[in-house]
Amino acid sequence: MGSDGGYSLTEIFAIKFVLADIVIIAALLFAGPIYAVAITVLLVISVFLVWYLTERVGSDDAESDPVREPVDPVTELQNRYAAGELSEAEFEAKLEHLLDSNERAERAGVDTRELALERER
User: Fold this and answer.
1) Residues 56 and 76 placed together within one structural domain of the fold
2) Which domain holds residue 77?
3) Are 118 and 98 in contact (CB under 8 A)?
4) Is residue 2 part of a domain?
5) What is the model's pLDDT at position 121?
6) What are the DSSP calls for 86-120, one per residue?
7) Which residues contact 34 (CB under 8 A, 6 or more apart)?
8) What secondary structure letter does DSSP report for 12?
9) What is the C-alpha to C-alpha distance for residues 26 and 31, in angstroms, rounded to an integer?
10) Distance between CA atoms of 31 and 27, rounded to whole angstroms?
11) What's the pTM?
């Protein structure tokens, strides 16, 4: 079972194939080979249909998600520091580097509005 309490797509397909085998064997035993072939064809078509629909729904979800705004470098550094990926010294050094880069860009006339870094004095 999946970690969220539901079944993953792989588990659903595996269950579907096991149930399909049982149905096909039952059709062979009780109804004859023509019915077993017909059921097999229907089950194969249903597998491709489920696969197609899950792919289509997945791509629709990706298109309907709003575009995430890029996180500015300072916020990214703060998040990494809060997550414990950076020590205090590394955080301070990287922040100082970002501020210096922003100041050099402003002196060179490069647009830095998206960075919005201001050195506190």
Assistant:
1) no
2) 68-121
3) no
4) no
5) 42
6) S-HHHHHHHHHHHHHHHHHHHHTT---TTT-----
7) none
8) H
9) 8
10) 5
11) 0.37
